[in-house]
TrEMBL record:
The keyword Transferase does not apply. This is GDP-mannose mannosyl hydrolase. Its cofactor is Mg(2+). Keywords: Hydrolase, Magnesium, Metal-binding. The lineage of its organism: Bacteria, Pseudomonadati, Pseudomonadota, Betaproteobacteria, Burkholderiales. Pfam families: NUDIX. NCBIfam families: PRK15434.1. GO terms for molecular function: hydrolase activity. The keyword Metal-binding applies. It comes from Paraburkholderia phenoliruptrix.
């Protein structure tokens, strides 16, 4: 595992690869969380996370779904691949001045029936279910999340 200083070097020098989870409920609403962490702290964003070194996409998808949503053993095959997106942020996880963050994001969409129990308070301070139109209309939803619905 990387030290915080080593990871800061990675963020400074390379793009990170991540998976975003576009989760809908039976009514077509989308789950977004109010981010606790940098980058994009304080904005509403779909759940997601970075892929770890030597981690398969299937393992990363399952781990991220568990960590972000509290849904164990969710298979990537149950989701629809929405495409590759780029996310650029002027800040970074450590708040180090002058270090931006660049993500290459693989977006996956899926619906979950038991949507009332989703979310992890350690990842987001709050959660909302919004229709795509409501999500795009809000100023506090991050543009990188809105891009999935434009």
């Amino acid at each position: 595992m990387l030290t915080e200083l080593d990871f800061l070097d990675v963020v400074r020098l390379t793009p990170l690869v991540a998976i975003d989870l576009i989760v809908s409920d039976a009514d077509g609403r989308i789950l977004i969380g109010h981010r606790r962490n940098r980058p994009a702290r304080g904005t509403w964003f779909v759940p997601g996370g970075r892929i770890l070194k030597d981690e398969t996409l299937d393992a990363a998808f399952s781990r991220i779904a568990d960590a972000e949503l509290g849904v164990a053993k969710l298979a990537r095959a149950s989701a629809r691949f929405e495409g590759v997106f780029e996310h650029h942020y002027s800040d970074n996880f450590a708040g180090e001045p002058g270090v931006s963050t660049h993500y290459i994001v693989l977006a996956y969409a899926f619906s979950l029936a038991d949507s009332e129990r989703l979310g992890r308070p350690d990842q987001h301070s709050d959660y909302l279910w919004l229709t795509p139109a409501e999500l795009v209309a809000r100023d506090d939803v991050h543009d990188n999340t809105k891009a999935y619905f434009r």
